[in-house]
Design goal:
Blueprint: H1 3-21, H2 27-31, E1 33-43, H3 49-62, E2 70-74, E3 90-96, H4 99-107, H5 109-118, E4 122-133
Antiparallel strand pairs: 1-3, 1-4, 2-3
Helix pairs in contact: 1-4, 3-5
Organism: Dyadobacter beijingensis
Protein name: Stress-response A/B barrel domain-containing protein
Pfam family, one: Dabb
């Protein structure tokens, strides 16, 4: 499938799945819980400053997706505890009002472009998604 038609297919598929969760099908649990999407990127060449800069460039583009409420881009902190995992290169954490907003993000053209244009840089990525009440404490 050529890139343009594949992209159009992914966008249409995303909009179709989004349509299936809107309105009554969305349910209160899909609209009221804060959604956090946290991704850890492991670059193929972790010491390659140019590749890291390219990934950061892509993440800053990704941060422009309007459904994102808050973004944090980070690197492993210089703290030393035996329980810390510090083997990743860059982390990406973003907050959404709810899972529906995150599903819109997943099929947004900027996200589709990000995956196409920057995936060659990492050997793996680990994703943690979590939900919870908007107000705790």
């Amino acid at each position: 499938m050529e890139d343009q038609s594949r992209r159009k297919f992914l966008q249409n598929a995303g909009m179709a799945s989004l349509a299936s969760v809107t309105g009554a099908a969305a349910g209160p649990e899909r609209t009221k819980e804060l959604f956090i999407h946290h991704v850890f990127f492991y670059l193929k060449e972790p010491n390659n400053a140019q590749h890291e800069a390219q990934l950061l460039e892509g993440l800053y583009k990704l941060a422009k997706i309007p459904e994102i409420q808050y973004v944090h881009i980070g690197k492993p902190a210089v703290t030393n505890r035996p329980d810390l995992v510090k083997d990743y290169t860059v982390s990406w954490m973003c907050f959404f009002k709810n899972i529906i907003e995150e599903e819109i993000y997943q099929t947004h053209p900027i996200h589709v472009d990000f995956m196409r244009d920057y995936a060659h840089l990492w050997e793996k990525m680990v994703v943690y998604d979590s939900i919870g009440p908007k107000n705790v404490g």
